[in-house]
From TrEMBL:
SUPFAM superfamilies the record matches: Cobalamin (vitamin B12)-binding domain
Species this protein is from: Ktedonospora formicarum
InterPro entries according to UniProt: Cbl-bd_cap, Cobalamin-bd, Cobalamin-bd_sf, Meth_synthase_dom
GO molecular function: cobalamin binding; metal ion binding
Origin organism lineage: Bacteria, Bacillati, Chloroflexota, Ktedonobacteria, Ktedonobacterales
Residue ranges of every copy of the B12-binding domain listed in the record: 188-314
Entry protein name: B12-binding domain-containing protein
Length: 314
């Protein structure tokens, strides 16, 4: 139980998101989990002391986020009061489900919820999936197939672009939240991760950045449409071990190749370049034009590939 890390995580969440969002997506699940632990196992005195310290830290963060002390106490009291009710509802749901829900079923009901623009139901399905499965399993066996199916439905005009945008936004927001709330250990060589210039599709590379941070790698996520000259400037400043870029279109694959050539001109020690993206599955010949290591098409193996590339930089 690392109180310092927990407090740092809390501060980071409040810095990145509105207070109401942190209360709903972070503090409430933590309080509900404490209720579950009290029901399923005896909490030691040290755990209870840790929880009480965390509660005080939450109040401080709420005040710093703009609430009055009274509002902060009322908000936290409300969250604590709701926790047993939420836990009881979760238990009723789990009792009705005699087996762990298969991904095939979760895919169908998640797409149905998104097609109805029912964001609340879609979020609850994701919550249930993350309860039963690991982050990596949910990403690869639920989120990826859902995105593929949504894309196919949009291409065949069975859903509107509005539905496609809602689905992408729900998933991007969830992945971003998971990434931001995963502690970055800042150990080992830095890895700059993002989309090539002109590339706006970031869910795939954001997912990989999440996997790598969860594996303990030192990840800097830069987002969409990286600007070449500013990237080169940061490389000279940070001296990362790797730069990993993604492309899903032919145009962004070309800009990726240009960035890789510019990185190769930097004075040593310069980072190695690695890259990936769906365009290389459709046009594998494009990889030959890029000076760097292709990560391949198996997302599960990219973490090991990245770790092997880092070893070569040491």
């Amino acid at each position: 139980m690392d109180e310092v890390s927990a407090s740092r995580l809390l501060r980071g969440a409040f810095a990145a998101h509105p207070a109401a969002y942190v209360c709903q997506q972070l503090i409430q699940p933590v309080l509900t989990k404490l209720v579950e632990l009290r029901h399923t196992s005896s909490l030691s005195h040290s755990v209870q002391r840790f929880a009480s310290k965390l509660t005080r830290a939450q109040i401080i963060q709420l005040i710093e986020a703009g609430m009055t002390p009274r509002e902060a106490l009322q908000r936290l009291s409300s969250l604590e009061a709701q926790a047993p009710q939420i836990y009881a509802k979760q238990q009723r749901t789990r009792k009705r489900m005699k087996t762990i829900p298969p991904f095939e079923r979760l895919i169908d009901i998640l797409i149905e919820a998104m097609a109805r623009l029912d964001e609340a139901h879609a979020q609850s399905i994701l919550d249930e999936a993350f309860f039963y499965y690991t982050v990596e399993d949910v990403c690869l066996n639920l989120i990826q197939p859902v995105l593929y199916r949504i894309g196919e439905l949009w291409a065949s005009r069975q859903i509107t672009v509005t539905v496609e945008h809602l689905a992408s936004n729900i998933i991007r927001t969830r992945l971003s939240y998971l990434f931001q709330t995963t502690p970055n250990l800042r150990q080992g060589p830095g890895i700059l991760v993002g989309c090539a210039p002109q590339e706006t599709h970031e869910i795939g590379i954001l997912m990989l950045a999440l996997f790598w941070r969860r594996a303990g790698l030192n990840i800097y996520y830069l987002g969409q449409m990286i600007e070449c000259q500013s990237l080169l400037q940061e490389i000279r400043k940070l001296r990362p071990g790797l730069v990993c870029l993604s492309a899903t279109m032919r145009t962004s694959a070309r800009t990726l190749a240009e960035v890789a050539r510019e990185i190769d001109k930097i004075d040593a020690p310069r980072p190695d370049v690695c890259f990936g993206g769906s365009i290389f599955a459709h046009e594998p010949g494009l990889t030959r034009a890029i000076k760097g290591s292709f990560l391949g098409l198996d997302a599960r193996q990219t973490t090991q590939h990245i770790q092997e590339l880092l070893q070569k930089t040491l």
